[in-house]
Design goal:
With 216 residues, this protein is an alpha/beta fold. Helix content is 43%, strand content 12%. Bound molecules: 1,6-di-O-phosphono-beta-D-glucopyranose and magnesium ion.
């Protein structure tokens, strides 16, 4: 199989921003008297901001008006952006930049497929933005993962077919999104959580293009 493109998720694949999302959501949950654990946070990976808030409110059986929800979502985002503001190249997960550069040298097309509305500032802060030919994020999509919209848009813009494109994802919902639209999927994390992926790697450390070609 000829791999023509790779689409990368952002949070948990390129940078470890998932921990900042968690901290910011946990602070918000606790301020409402709702307990929110790391295990529950797994369910929020790849999920949009408002859907994440609704999930947390449901945990505490808290009902709020749309206006109040908008306010809370904005305050969570302000908190998250305080972390983003301090980001630099040291936040890039081991090996991923080298892998993307190796793909580019081999003329494999590169896109970002993230649910986040903060994807561009993060790529700028970490100095990675120039590596991406196409960026599809929470600002260009209506439906979030597990809907495959974000990846379909990425592949369409890159002018490649799903079956010749590999999606790298750390969330179950993201893997489901990729599989649903017939992309090749590689999970970043642990087999037991990402069992639905075509293949799972712990991260990009020591992962080379030759390894990808062996998988597909
Ligand atoms: P924002 P990804 C997702 O990004 C995160 O995994 C998820 O936890 C977050 O709620 C979502 O982005 C929205 O992020 O509030 O920054 O718009 O993993 O799809 O890159
Ligand atoms: Mg992610």
């Amino acid at each position: 199989m000829m791999i023509k493109a790779c689409i990368f998720d952002l949070d948990g694949v390129i940078v470890d921003s998932a921990k900042y999302h968690f901290t910011a959501w946990q602070e918000l949950a606790n301020s409402l008297g709702i307990s929110f654990t790391k295990e529950q946070n797994e369910d929020l990976k790849g999920v949009s901001r408002m859907d994440s808030l609704n999930y947390i409110l449901k945990l505490g059986s808290v009902e709020l008006s749309q206006e109040e929800k908008e306010k809370l979502a904005a305050s969570k985002n302000d908190r998250y952006l305080q972390y983003v503001d301090k980001m630099d190249k040291s936040e890039i997960l081991p090996g991923v930049e080298e892998f993307i550069r190796e793909c580019r040298e081999a003329s494999i097309k590169i896109a970002l497929g993230s649910s986040s509305k903060n994807a561009r500032p993060i790529l700028e802060k970490t100095n990675l933005i120039d590596l991406f030919e196409v960026i599809v994020d929470g600002n260009n999509t209506i439906n979030t993962k597990p809907d495959p919209e974000v990846f379909i848009k990425g592949a369409t813009k890159l002018k490649v077919k799903a079956e010749e494109t590999v999606v790298f994802e750390d969330s179950i919902k993201g893997i489901r999104a990729a599989n649903k639209a017939y992309f090749r999927s590689i999970g970043i994390g642990e087999w037991h959580t990402l069992i639905e992926a075509d293949y799972v790697i712990p991260g990009f450390e020591n992962f080379k293009l030759t390894d990808l070609k062996e998988i597909f």
